[in-house]
């Protein structure tokens, strides 16, 4: 069934109407609570700007980090409200609570085109509760914030692509209570993923890295039948290497996944490509001394923190004629300059393929951050997704609750 878009909502007319928007404003902060990468705020602006310009009373709900279901000043959305206001070019009020007295009073005081950001929705344990009734109760209170004085319903715009794979009150339940629409970001992201799954031109190369093998194994299983090559680097390559009997020293290893990796390698031997060399160090630290070794010669007292130059060369060759590329997960600990070359090299190979006409998608918060932090041109890729988990689950073939609910 079709999903209504923001344009459908704008066509209905939103002037003076309360509109609740679920955005993904979960940006990384440093120790002084400065935003280190505003990418997700920037990506949320088009939907919010369109609604303000059309005169809606905009109420934004979002989360930041992983609070434990209780207010945590460290994870207040205050820095986000300021940055969002700057990008929107208008004042963004921050409520001191989510659906409490401050939010209610502020919601009531909104005039056309105003923006109110509710405090971190994960301060309320009902947001992520497994109990449907608890989540529904919070969703009901959120929905009430945008109802008109005559009790007429407001509208809900789902624009937090990074959370649409979560069955949470502000993502899923609230959409069951209000007229619902996909925001610009969600619409754009879904369109790209549909293109990746339905009409991928070949050769199709998938590059996977990052730190958690278990999260990504299901994708490999699903993509191995569709992709021509799957290039594996990052922290996840060591479990694959270990499954071939290679000793990986102190590298990241998920013992429980070794058997699964072995089976994947047996079944898809000509699709899956592992590193041939690794940059190792004796500790996980920026100042650690890098040393390149063969992938099957990782010393027992060292840990692998990046793929080596030989691997970058192999991966670059494999990517050179690709027509479709999906990349999720950095190839190494790119946050430390001494271990960033693998990620940079592979990213450059993807950019080169894109320049030759390939359709390339980067998915994953850290991968997108790597593109920006390593000074790579973000327009060198066809699309940079804001949602790692959500895009992976989509590619796995799973139904995303936050998308499915918009269809109903
Ligand atoms: P994404 O957010 O793009 O999906 P992940 O969250 O899975 O990616 O993983 C990102 C993290 O993986 C980065 O912080 C990076 O430092 C880390 N990483 C990459 N390679 C290694 C490695 N060899 N050892 C430990 N951590 C690694
Ligand atoms: Mg991540």
UniProtKB/TrEMBL annotation:
ATP binds at residues 216, 304, 335, 364-367. Substrate binds at residues 24-26, 40, 63-66, 122, 166. The keyword Iron does not apply. It is found in: Cytoplasm. (2R)-3-phosphoglycerate binds at residues 40, 122, 166. Pfam families: PGK (PF00162). Its EC number is 2.7.2.3. GO terms for molecular function: ADP binding; ATP binding; phosphoglycerate kinase activity. It catalyses: (2R)-3-phosphoglycerate + ATP = (2R)-3-phospho-glyceroyl phosphate + ADP. Belongs to the phosphoglycerate kinase family. This is Phosphoglycerate kinase.
């Amino acid at each position: 069934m079709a999903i209504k878009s923001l344009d459908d909502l704008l066509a209905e007319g939103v002037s003076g109407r309360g509109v609740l928007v679920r955005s993904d404003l979960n940006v990384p902060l440093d120790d002084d609570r400065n935003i280190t990468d505003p990418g997700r705020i920037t990506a949320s602006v088009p939907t919010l700007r369109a609604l303000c310009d059309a005169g809606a009373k905009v109420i934004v709900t979002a989360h930041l980090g992983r609070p434990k279901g209780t207010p945590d000043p460290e994870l207040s959305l205050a820095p986000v409200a300021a940055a969002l206001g700057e990008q929107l070019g208008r004042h963004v009020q921050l409520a001191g609570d989510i659906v409490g007295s401050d939010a209610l009073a502020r919601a009531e005081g909104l005039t056309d085109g105003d923006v109110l950001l509710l405090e971190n929705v994960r301060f309320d344990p009902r947001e992520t509760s497994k109990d449907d009734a608890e989540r529904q109760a919070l969703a009901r209170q959120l929905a009430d914030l945008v109802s008109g004085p005559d009790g007429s319903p407001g509208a809900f715009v789902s624009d937090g692509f990074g959370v649409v794979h979560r069955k949470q009150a502000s993502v899923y339940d609230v959409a069951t209570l209000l007229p619902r629409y996909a925001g610009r970001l969600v619409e754009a992201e879904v369109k790209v993923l549909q293109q990746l799954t339905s009409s991928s031109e070949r050769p199709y190369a998938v590059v996977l890295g990052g730190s958690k093998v278990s999260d990504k194994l299901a994708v490999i299983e699903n993509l191995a039948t569709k992709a021509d090559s799957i290039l594996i680097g990052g922290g996840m390559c060591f479990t694959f290497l270990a499954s071939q009997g290679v000793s990986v020293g102190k590298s990241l290893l998920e013992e429980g996944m070794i058997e699964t990796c072995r089976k994947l390698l047996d079944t898809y031997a000509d699709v899956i490509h592992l590193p041939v060399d690794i940059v190792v160090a004796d500790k996980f630290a920026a100042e650690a001394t890098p040393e390149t070794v063969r992938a099957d010669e990782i010393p027992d007292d060292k840990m692998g923190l990046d793929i080596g130059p030989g691997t970058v060369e192999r991966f670059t060759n494999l990517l050179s004629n690709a027509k479709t590329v999906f990349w999720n997960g950095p190839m190494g600990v790119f946050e430390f300059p001494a271990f960033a070359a693998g990620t940079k090299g592979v990213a450059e190979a993807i950019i080169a393929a894109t320049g030759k006409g390939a359709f390339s998608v980067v998915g994953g918060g850290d991968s997108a951050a790597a593109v920006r932090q390593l000074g790579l041109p973000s327009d060198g890729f066809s699309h940079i997704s804001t949602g790692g988990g959500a895009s992976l689950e989509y590619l796995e073939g799973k139904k995303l609750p936050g998308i499915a609910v918009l269809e109903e």
